[in-house]
Every structure is written in structure tokens, then in C-alpha cells.
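It would be a great kindness if you could assist me with a short task in structural biology. The full record is reproduced below for your convenience:
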Amino acid sequence: MIRKMGFRWHLRQLMAQRDMFQTADLVPKLAERGVHLSREQVFRLVTQPPQRLSMDTLAALCDILGCGVQDLIEVVIVDEQVRKTGTGGGADPAAPAPMARRTTIRRPGQT
């Protein structure tokens, strides 16, 4: 079994605690710190946990929100077993195989 790590992204909560309810509010504040992101990129950053994040963006967010990295990102252990080899698309290995069904192809004009 592999120990899988995950994280919780608290940007939205930290913004709300500082009365920042519009994702667009971050765009100029990030630009002041040399981080130029579009409104769409900032929206995704606020609404979805990022898989990749530049250190410049992380530092700017911490400065804007007056918080530390640990306030923004909470590392957690995922409580699910992760196998080293898959079972083929995540299917339940205990589930019965689907029944094979013979198909007849009918062309137009055939009965």
C-alpha cells in the first residue's frame, strides 16, 4: 500500500475572512506584486485547488492575505488504499463480468 497525500486549498475561505468576495479583487492585487493572471485564471485559482502553483503566485497570495503557506494549504493524508497496479479502469474486482451479448447488424432494406 502506498501512503497517498493530498491537500485542502483554503484561498476562498481566507478571502472571505478578509471581506474579499469577488475573485476579480485579486487581479490588481496580484499585478501589484508582479503576478499577471487573467480574470479566468484567478477564478480557477479561487474555485479549484491548483495542481501547480508558481512560488511567485504563492508568495503574492500570502502577502495579500497576510497569512502563511500553512494557512493557505493544509496537507492531509488520503484515507484510501492506493494499489501500485490498477485493476483496469477502477472496476471493482469482486463485481461479476458483464454478460456478452450477440448483436445483429441490419442494413437498410434487410429484414
The CA atoms of residues 17 and 65 lie 9 Å apart. The two ends are 56 Å apart (CA to CA). The mean pLDDT is 85.
